[in-house]
Amino acid sequence: MTKTKISSIIGATILCLGTYSIAKAEIVIGIAGPMTGSVAFLGEQQDIGAKRAVADINAAGGVLGQQISTVVVDDACDGEQSAAAAAQLIAAKVAFVNGHICSGASIAASGLYEDSKIIMMSPASTNPRVTDDGGRNVFRVIGRDDDQAVVGAEFLATEYADKNIAVVGGTNPYGAGLAKGVLDELKKRGVEPAMVATFESDGDSYDGIVDQLVASEIDIAYLISNSPSDMGLIALQARELLPEIQFLSGDALSGDDYLLVAGEAGVGTLFTFGPDARLLPSAAVVTEAIREEDFFEPAGYTLYSYTAVQTWAQAVEKAGTTDYVKVIKALEENEFDTVIGKIGFNEKGDVTGVANFVFYEYGEETYTQK
């Protein structure tokens, strides 16, 4: 072997070791959400919020002196695909997962992360099963549907007790779970809906649902699904035959896709969601940065996604390590200063310290907190 070849091999080896060293100096985290499909706008909110948090943390020196890098995977808001997405992140040896967005995806993937000793924190999954059935590795920075159901049912029972109420839920875990919660809470209050129905996502028409709304002379319809466009189509079709009908929904309606489909038929629609983080002093700087630098309005789950990364990073600093057990302990035992305020977690991994669900109303262009 010539000296030239030996030098080339040594040089290549040094280069590889140098690259490996740089890679080892980074902490890799995953972003898992619906980057494609009918709710891809939620994945966009998640992606922008998480990456803005990473950029801000890295600019401030990183975590434990190391920079953070991200791996983004697409679960299409689907349980089966979320398992495949989780497998990609596990193979990438991520230390943390921001995700998932849809409850069904979170439920399907959380056990895989637990087996691989990876912490996941959802910015958006509200189904109680996410943390009730999840392991110690599962956290969320958004409220629970059993709390959201109370808020929705109380409104219906107070404002529409003598009117014809419909509860129309999607068959996905989020829609079915929240619809059941509202029905249970209405029963506790002695209110019986005039109509209860379910629907499949991504329908071309919802004539059957609309026919039932008309036949039952519905005054207010609680529409709940993880797809705003589905609910927008129902609203559009129903408004033609029931011009005075009121629509009410849950947090998944926080995407402007609803108005893109419903148009004027969606104006006046009410929905419940966590407090608008854009209005909080703690989020002012980040909100402005996302608007000016990312050219994006940080509505919906954007700042909740930022919070998930921000919280995990603070927990790592408190633990002094990325060790799975020690970071979980730090998350369980501390409070964290975030863009949505000072938060902590209870024994299930549910967020504490944030206000409960509040009401929003759609105007002609977007929604505002009431």
Please give a quick description of this structure.
This protein has 370 residues and is α/β, with parallel strands linked by helices. Helix content is 46%, strand content 19%.
Distance linking N and C termini: 78 Å
Overall 3D geometry?
A: elongated
**Residue share in helices?**
40-55%
Can you write the helix and strand succession as a string? Answer: HEHEHEHEHEHEHEHEHEHEHHHEEEEE
CA radius of gyration: 23 Å
Low-confidence stretches: 1-24
State mean pLDDT (0 to 100 scale): 92
Main structural class: alpha/beta
Number of distinct beta strands: 15
- Sheet with the most strands, sense and barrel status: 7 strands, mixed
Q: Beta-strand level of the residues, as a percent range?
A: 15-25%
Q: Please state how the strands of the largest beta sheet are arranged side by side.
A: 7-6-8-9-10-14-15
**Count of DSSP-assigned helices:** 13
Helix and strand arrangement:
Elements: H1 3-24, E1 26-33, H2 40-59, E2 67-74, H3 79-91, E3 96-99, H4 103-115, E4 119-122, H5 129-132, E5 138-140, H6 145-159, E6 165-170, H7 173-188, E7 195-199, H8 207-215, E8 220-224, H9 228-241, E9 246-249, H10 257-262, E10 270-273, H11 284-293, H12 302-319, H13 324-333, E11 336-338, E12 341-345, E13 351-352, E14 358-362, E15 367-369
Parallel strand pairs: 1-2, 1-3, 3-4, 4-5, 6-7, 6-8, 8-9, 9-10
Antiparallel strand pairs: 10-14, 11-12, 12-13, 14-15
Tell me what the structure shows:
By secondary structure, the protein is α/β, with parallel strands linked by helices. It has helices at 3-24, 40-59, 79-91, 103-115, 129-132, 145-159, 173-188, 207-215, 228-241, 257-262, 284-293, 302-319, 324-333; strands spanning 26-33, 67-74, 96-99, 119-122, 138-140, 165-170, 195-199, 220-224, 246-249, 270-273, 336-338, 341-345, 351-352, 358-362, 367-369. A hairpin with a 4-residue loop joins strand 14 and strand 15 (367-369). Helix 3 (79-91) runs parallel beside helix 4 and helix 6 crosses helix 7. The longest helix has 22 residues, at 3-24. The protein starts with a helix and ends with a strand.
